[in-house]
Amino acid sequence: MKFNSFAISFLLSGLALGQWACNTDDTPAVVPVVAQTVRNLPADPTTGVNPTTGQPLGTTGRFTLYNLRDNKTVANTDSATNKWDVGFRGTTIIVNGGAIRSGQGGAYVHTGTFEEFTTVPTSATFGQDQSATSLAIVAASGRGWYNYNAPANLITPIPGRVLVIRTGDGKFAKMEILSYYENAPTTVDPNRDRQRFYTFRYVYQPDGSMKLN
Amino acid sequence: MFVSALLSGLSCFTTSPATDTLRSRGLDEVVVTATRTERPMGALPMPVTVIDGKQIRQMGSLRLNDVLGEQTGLAIVTNHGQGVQMQGFNPDYTLILIDGEPLVGRTAGTLELSRLAVGNIKRIEIVKGPSSSLYGSEALAGVINIITENPAQTRGTLAARYGSNRTSDLTGDVSLKQGKVGLYVFGNRLASGGYDLTPDVPGQTVSPFVNYTGSGRLTVDWSSRWKLNLSGRYFSERQDNRLALPDGRMVAGPGRIHDMNLNPTLTHRPSQAWKLTYRFYHTTYQTQTDLQHEGTLLPNESRVYDAQFFRQTFNRPELQADHYIRQKHILTLGAGYIAESVEATRYTQRQRFGTRYAFFQYEWLPSARLNLIAGGRFDSHSQYAGQFSPKLSGRYELTPALALRGSVGVGFKAPDFRQLYLNFDNAVAGYSVFGTEELPAGLARLRQSGQLAEILIDPAQLGAIRPESSRAYNIGFQFRPGGGTRTLSNLSLNAFRNDVRDLIETQPVARRTNGQAVFSYLNLSRVFTQGVEIDAQFRWQVATDGQLTLSTGYQFLDARDKAVLAQIDAGQLFSRDPQTLSSQRIRRGDYGGLFSRSRHMANARLFYENAKQGCSATLRGIYRSRYGFADRNGNLILDDANEYVGGYILWNLSAAKTIRSLTIQAGIDNLLNHTDALFIPNLPGRIGYLSARWVMSKRKDVSDKSI
Predict the structure, then answer these.
(1) What CATH number does residue B582 fall under?
(2) A55, B428 contact by CB (below 8 A)
(3) Strand partners of residue B693
(4) Range of B283's domain?
(5) How many Cβ pairs closer than 8 A exist between chain A and B?
(6) Which of A118, B300, B567, B632 could form a disulfide with B573 if both were Cys (CB 3.0 to 4.6 A apart)?
(7) Do B508 and A186 touch (CB under 8 A)?
């Protein structure tokens, strides 16, 4: 809580936030309202596939939980806290809100470009994770954040999809998934490139407002 | 060896004894496909292409795909087999007939054209634009009718060919004519070692196969009024598949295809004004694959990797009546019933369905210059909504050499078996696919076993699935300068537009508790295809007996999805920059249209013939511009440069020399050895071949000796 009021005071002072960096000793380093890019976040990757069945091998079934404010992963033991904002496992993305979560978060998928999405409209309706099969961000090809292209055996993030996220403690963020394959190759070879590695960019607004630029 | 044979064939360009007049080709040859009555080709108001058997032999073609791939506006595309793309439509939308009767046995919509040997083909008639007004379902892009030989005289031929990839072809036929009875028998054996475009990957691109075709026809002309025709065909293939699993272990086993048809037809002419045709057609198509693991098995693994079968039957009685009134009116009426059934590994049980249909056509020739045809057909089906397909076409002669022609028509394609009856649970990936007829039961079953999480689209609200249908416009001209000595002998142009609605696509209709989807088939998309097709034929006399013919063709094609265009116009469609990975809005110009369609296709085919010297040669070039193969950047549409297969040209060469009744032919297909293992697996590299054909004829028949 200490941190948030600190950040807000800076926002109110009207500084050019983009050029600002905080290196105070007693608070974590945070650059608010600046797009961050996270590369190669593992989302329960596989050690291979069962050659006969094609089923993934070596998965743990656990989500990789992520804190957007601190731009870092959170241990699974903290899953019942507000420390995490989004979680990744395979193509499934979860948020910290709903019947099966502890926080008050939510999310929806906006169609448009990341840059153009500057403010969360007040009319926006956020979905929540109500059950393992009823998630705020639908985990199905063409209906959430990705398309599965069966002939090419490719999972590609749908271009022009912005995940609008409300965190467990009521802050807003926008996120665009850029790649599902390790090192985000320009041309993915599904036989060679490892999947379940997220590259995404996001903007987190720590002051609780709906402005995201 | 091939080169020397080619050179010997070419040697006849230099010699030129004796005189001979140019034989004018029968532009007014009779065509049956366009109207289901015998009509001169030049008088028809729709675009028709005829390929005769002699031309097929000169090209050195073995199977139907070889022939069709060289024709203007047609492309051979692969999806579970080699099919034909016409006016920008997938193979599902072109009806393939043998002697007017439909071939069945499509896999994922494609009727494998290499099932058809060409040795018994008298001619192929190609009608572009919808012909559902006469033929019903599938005749949406057009109709290809294979007319087989009939026993007009007593003769026989024997031909053998050997070429690259250990490909051998043996063909023989005998035709007997004795008084009122005629008999034609044809046999073919084709064997190939297959080929491998990716030697570093275990297993071949095309596995070795052998197939047999037998066909026959019996004709009895009882009197000038009654005629009987009985024709049949049998095809059988065995392919020895062997392929590698991702872990490098091999599975192997045979794939078998059997295909049979029988077609008795009785023709009755009670008077000059009436012709009645009673037809019965029976056909079956079956496949069987059996893949087994080689070597040691994993624990709890079955020896059988994959075993599947598919069996389809089709029976159809039909009556057609043609009424001719004073050379000015031709009225055609017809009615029939189709009984179909299918059994397959992924279907619950043997499924049957029936179609009742009736059609009419009225052809009116008010003057020598004008020809109008109006027709329509109603198909009433047991499983889906009925369909009425009208068509109106006309031709007007501005001058004896120049005619305008145009047509407006509706074509349709019925939902196929898998769209109605598929019942498939993918145990590995955890999803399910149900045909529309199976969907309610399938969902109930999942609900009962607690596997159904959510219904996305209620099947009760969907109503009956509708056939896919199209409204088509074709307009053009045909210019045929008179006299046989002009260089330009034929120039024709046809512009087309097809507006297609209710295209059936798979769509998730429910979600399972494992998070995977339940798919079914819905009438969804609206697309259009439009373009222009131009054909020109030039002829020159070379020396005194030689004749050189150049056929050139070009098609411009624009095929796009209307929903995609609407999304683009609304600014709702994006692409991902491959470098920065950020999303950007797509404009109309970025959209490359439907996948696997080339914007430009062209051909130039040179035929040389010297009947007196008994030699002939051909050089054919076929061009396809780049075409999309799959989405790679997530928006599911064709827009990025790396989603295209590059354009290419194929060159085919052949030459033949006839000495008495023996013809020796040599040829090279795909001269420049163009291959693309990933996207054009059906194209082997350069193919050389040598063949010999021996004609035994009771009467002397000069025209037949020139191959």
Answers:
(1) 2.40.170.20
(2) yes
(3) B159, B663
(4) 2-705
(5) 96
(6) B567
(7) no
User: CB distance from B642 to chain A under 8 Å?
Assistant: yes
Minimal-distance CA residue of chain A relative to B429: A55
Distance CA B353, CA B347 (A): 14
Q: Enumerate the domain spans of chain A.
A: 30-205
Inter-chain CB proximity B572 and A160 less than 8 Å: yes
Q: What would the DSSP string read from start to end of B569-593?
A: HTT--EEE-TTT--EEE--GGG---
Residue B66, both tokens: 């070889």
Q: What is the mean pLDDT of chain B?
A: 90
As for the ipTM of the complex, it is 0.79
A86/A92 Cα distance (integer angstroms): 10
Q: What is the pLDDT of residues B582-640, one digit of tens each?
A: 899 999 999 999 999 999 999 999 999 998 999 999 999 999 999 999 888 889 899 99
Report the distance separating Cα B303 and Cα B122, nearest Å: 47
B536 sits in the region (left: phi over 0; alpha: psi -120 to 50; else beta) called beta
Name the nearest CA neighbour of B392 among B473, B501, B469.
B473
Residue A64 has pLDDT above 50, yes or no: yes
- Say how many Å lie between the first and final Cα of chain A, rounded: 23
Q: Does A111 contact B at CB distance below 8 Å?
A: yes
- Say what the pLDDT of residue A32 is: 54
A19 in reach of chain B (CB within 8 A) = no
Of all residues in chain B, the one with the smallest CA distance to A146 is B634
Contact B563, B573 (CB under 8 A): no
Indicate the number of domains in chain B: 1
**Residue-wise pLDDT tens digits, A109-122:** 999 999 999 999 99
Q: For tokens 């609200």, name the residue.
A: B461
Contacts of B295 in chain A (CB under 8 A): none
Which among B454, B574, B579 is the nearest to A159, CB-wise? B574
Residue B235 burial by Cβ neighbours in a 10 Å radius (0-12, 13-18, 19+): buried
Q: Map tokens 């050029």 to a residue.
A: A19
Q: How far is B696 from B313, CA to CA, in rounded Å?
A: 38
For B265-300, give the DSSP string: EEEEEEETTEEEEEEEEEEEEEEEEEEEE-SPPPTT
Please name the residues between 34 and 63 in chain A that touch chain B, using a CB distance below 8 Å.
49, 51-55
Q: Is B508 on the interface with A (CB under 8 A)?
A: yes
Q: Spell out which residues of chain A touch residue B633, defining contact as CB-CB under 8 Å.
A: 156, 159
3-state secondary structure B356-416: EEEEEEEEECCCCCEEEEEEEEEEEECCCCCEEEEEEEEEEECCCCEEEEEEEEEEEECCC
Contacts of B66 (CB under 8 A, 6+ apart): B59, B118, B669
Best mutation site among A52, A180, A189 for testing chain B: the one with the most B CBs within 10 Å? A52
B641 touches chain A (CB under 8 A): no
Task: Sort strands B155-163 and B142-148 into parallel, antiparallel or unpaired.
Answer: unpaired
pLDDT of residue A170: 94
Asked if B246 lies within 8 A of A54 by C-beta distance, the reply is yes
Mean pLDDT by runs of 10 across the 707 residues of chain B is: 45 39 51 89 87 95 97 94 95 96 92 96 95 94 96 94 97 95 97 93 92 97 95 97 83 95 97 96 96 88 90 97 92 97 90 94 93 96 89 95 95 90 80 90 91 82 85 95 77 97 88 81 92 96 90 97 95 89 93 96 96 94 95 89 94 96 97 93 95 84 44
Per-residue pLDDT tens for B424-457?
Answer: 887 767 788 999 989 999 999 999 998 888 888 8
Contact B515 A158 (CB under 8 A): no
Query: What is the least distance, in Å, from the CA of B582 to any CA of chain A?
Result: 7
On the CB side of B226, how many CA atoms lie within 13 Å of its CA? Answer: 3
From the list A52, A55, A149, which residue is nearest B630 (CB)? A149
A35 vs A52, residue with greater confidence? A35
